[in-house]
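Entry 14. Ran structure prediction on the chain below.
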Amino acid sequence: MTQFSGWDPEPNLRISSGGPWEERYGYSRARRVGPLAVTAGCTATVDGQPQCPGNPAGQARIAFGIGLDALAQAGLGAESVIATKMYITSRHHADPVGAVHGEFFGAIRPAATMVVVAGLIDLALLVEVELTAWAG
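Output, structure tokens:
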């Protein structure tokens, strides 16, 4: 059996933000298994309330911050992010959200995907992001 050098099955962590949907829908804000950590979709929701209505850049800033805070709880920083996914509710949000992505990850340059979707769980939300990080 081949073993991966440097791979440690621990930690196996579940990170919770206490957000309104985590318990109800049965998911974690982030999971880390060994060197891999992933976040659930992060939006600009704080204390159950959407922030920065009508401002995709402001919402992206908050959403990336929430994702990075969750990764920090798993022991990983922004430099460990290897992939990002951005879901936006209008193609007109691509440039402002992409620019915020560049603020956070321009020096790191992870693989990135941006997709226009019909809508998010709350109509006031314009942006949702996911982060994947690797500690190997």
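Residues 12-134 form a domain with the 60s Ribosomal Protein L30; Chain: A; fold (CATH 3.30.1330.40). Will compare against last week's run tomorrow.
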